[in-house]
Amino acid sequence: MPEVYKNLVAGEWVGAGGGATGPDINPADISDVVALFPAMDAGDVTRHRRRGGGV
């Protein structure tokens, strides 16, 4: 299972609101998913910036 990372928004490591992720795929072996990253949208970023004070 690949490692699941978070994004740094307004000084806090957070995932996407709905829990959606996107894969980081090894270009030398496209069947190898190296990691998963949050599939955040503008609403996620706005929500976290408001809660955390924003940048």
Key words describing this protein structure:
two-stranded antiparallel sheet; alpha+beta; elongated; 55 residues; 3-stranded mixed beta sheet
Beta-strand share of residues: 25-35%
Overall number of strands = 5
Mean pLDDT: 88
Given the C-alpha coordinates, what overall shape results? elongated
User: Can you write the helix and strand succession as a string?
Assistant: EEEEEH
Number of domain modules: 1
Q: From the alpha carbons, calculate the radius of gyration and give it in angstroms.
A: 13 Å
Helix/sheet category: alpha+beta
Q: Report the biggest beta sheet as strand number plus sense, adding barrel if it closes.
A: 3 strands, mixed
- Across the major sheet, the strand order is 1-5-4
Helix content: 10-25%
Number of helices: 1
Distance between the termini: 34 Å
Low-confidence stretches: none
Describe the structure.
The chain is of the alpha+beta class and 55 residues long. The chain has one domain (3-52). It has one helix at residues 42-52, and strands at residues 3-4, 7-9, 12-14, 21-25, 33-38. The mean pLDDT is 88.
